[in-house]
Design a protein that fits this description.
The protein is α/β, with parallel strands linked by helices. It contains nine helices and nine strands. It has a single domain, classed as TIM Barrel, CATH 3.20.20.190. β8, α8 and β9 form a beta-alpha-beta unit.
């Protein structure tokens, strides 16, 4: 089966290692991830860190909102399983530059300029995809940096719903979208068809919920999905081997 499937480590990996950490990213890359995907938030003193939730509670030994802490305090907390430090965006970009590409999920709308500054200072614009749920914010980024690849997370997206996209396609976007991410249980043949018609790469995420995630991933690949965000790093080589033999 000939395919150019994009394999993405979702938060690095969410199995066996703490998500959004150096160990998680390293595991995904060593198992064949073309991209690592991670979430960025801002501390009280405007440091950009890699963490999914607005709160420290679920994934770290700290508690409270990220925005209420200075980075000097946050770096003293550890992740719950592997006892890692919460990484800075610039540290992740520096460590993995040249080893993989990056999908940077903006968890806050007001951090775009700081994120792009960090990316551009490292000459990584071509190796990064900026993703988010706020379509207007993504439009501002694309207008300022036309060469920047943009991914719209449409599942809970602001300003454009999945129903509107399926009905109207690219004409409903105020600018050219490069990728669209949709939760796996919502992906349909129609969604993939509209993406292909509009030259947009379709990505699917959230395979935690399935008893047999590999089977679900295979079914989406057969439907024509362009990229998978893998929750489990071990499934990346499984899928790559299956594609070679299929």
């Amino acid at each position: 089966m000939k395919t150019d499937l994009i394999c993405i480590g979702h938060r690095g990996t969410r199995i066996n290692f703490d998500e959004n950490t150096f160990l998680a990213f390293d595991k995904a890359i060593k198992n064949g991830a073309d991209y690592i995907e991670f979430d960025v938030r801002e501390t009280k003193d405007k440091k950009l860190i890699i963490i999914h939730d607005p709160s420290l509670n679920r994934t770290t030994t700290g508690s409270g909102l990220v925005k209420d802490f200075y980075y000097d305090k946050i770096k003293k907390f550890k992740t719950k399983t592997n006892k890692e430090q919460i990484p800075l965006l610039i540290a992740v970009l520096d460590k993995f530059k040249g080893k993989t590409k990056f999908i940077i999920h903006l968890k806050e709308d007001n951090i775009s300029e700081l994120v792009l500054k960090s990316v551009n200072e490292r000459d990584l614009l071509q190796d990064c995809v900026i993703s988010g749920r706020n379509l207007k914010n993504l439009e501002l980024i694309k207008n300022k940096f036309p060469r920047c690849n943009i991914c719209y997370n449409i599942t809970k997206g602001k300003d454009l719903t999945i129903q509107e996209f399926i009905t109207f396609g690219q004409q409903k976007f105020p600018f050219k979208i490069d990728m669209i991410g949709l939760r796996s249980n919502l992906v349909s043949n129609k969604f993939i068809e509209i993406c292909k018609k509009n030259i947009i790469l379709s990505l699917s995420w959230d395979f935690f919920r399935y008893d047999k995630p590999v089977d679900k991933i295979k079914s989406l690949i057969k439907q024509g999905i362009n990229g998978i965000l893998f929750d489990d790093y071990k499934n990346i080589p499984i899928i790559k081997q299956w594609l070679e033999a299929y």
